User: Which sequence fits this backbone?
């Protein structure tokens, strides 16, 4: 069955389950992840690939809700694959699943368009909690990984585009960096959800970014210190 047909089957027979694609070159790991997704309530694996090249060729037609992306792939890396795929399927969320825990890989993945970053030692329940968090607008990342990102950058003067953020926009950006969902931001600031969306759109425009992950990456570069 082709990926497109499998996605259609998920939507037709499994009541619009969340569709997931997996890009992982380790065969046994790929099979385990595929099995986990297909056995999880509310999820369906529509495609899996052993290389970024195959994913690049097929995913624009499949348009999964979420992609679990390895970094260390033969040929094109997972980070570069996200960078190339994000403009083609902007509604798809990319969640990195890798062994790399250094700040360089984490930052590069977020800057490429990933919305979250998990290590392969992540337990099954935590993986699906992260997937649900992504679908709710979150950016799942272990506290240790987030701390490494924040602590790895020296405090720098805010670039001109960030300096143009209004006080309220700066507050919204900080809350995004702390992992708040849009609804939680609206409740905390006593504003409507459409107003939060307007602030986020203005932040994207001023920072010249295209995703929450990119905005957060820009933020942590200029705001060192762990944030809970």
Assistant:
């Amino acid at each position: 069955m082709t990926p497109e047909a499998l996605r259609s089957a998920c939507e037709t027979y499994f009541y619009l389950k969340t569709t997931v694609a997996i890009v992982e070159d380790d065969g046994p790991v790929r099979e385990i992840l595929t099995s986990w997704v297909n056995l999880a309530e509310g999820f369906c694996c529509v495609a899996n690939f052993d290389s970024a090249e195959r994913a690049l060729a097929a995913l624009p037609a499949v348009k999964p809700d979420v992609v679990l992306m390895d970094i260390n792939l033969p040929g094109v890396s997972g980070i570069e694959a996200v960078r190339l795929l994000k403009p083609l399927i902007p509604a798809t969320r990319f969640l990195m699943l890798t062994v790399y825990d250094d700040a360089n890989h984490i930052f590069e993945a977020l800057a490429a368009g990933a919305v979250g970053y998990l290590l392969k030692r992540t337990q099954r329940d935590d993986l699906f909690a992260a997937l649900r968090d992504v679908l709710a607008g979150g950016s799942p990342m272990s506290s240790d990984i987030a701390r490494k990102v924040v602590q790895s950058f020296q405090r720098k003067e805010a670039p001109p585009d960030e300096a143009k953020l209004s006080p309220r926009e700066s507050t919204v950006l900080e809350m995004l960096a702390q992992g708040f969902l849009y609804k939680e931001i609206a409740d905390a600031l006593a504003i409507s959800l459409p107003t939060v969306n307007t602030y986020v759109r203005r932040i994207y425009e001023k920072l010249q970014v295209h995703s929450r992950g990119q905005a957060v990456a820009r933020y942590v570069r200029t705001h060192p210190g762990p944030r809970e």
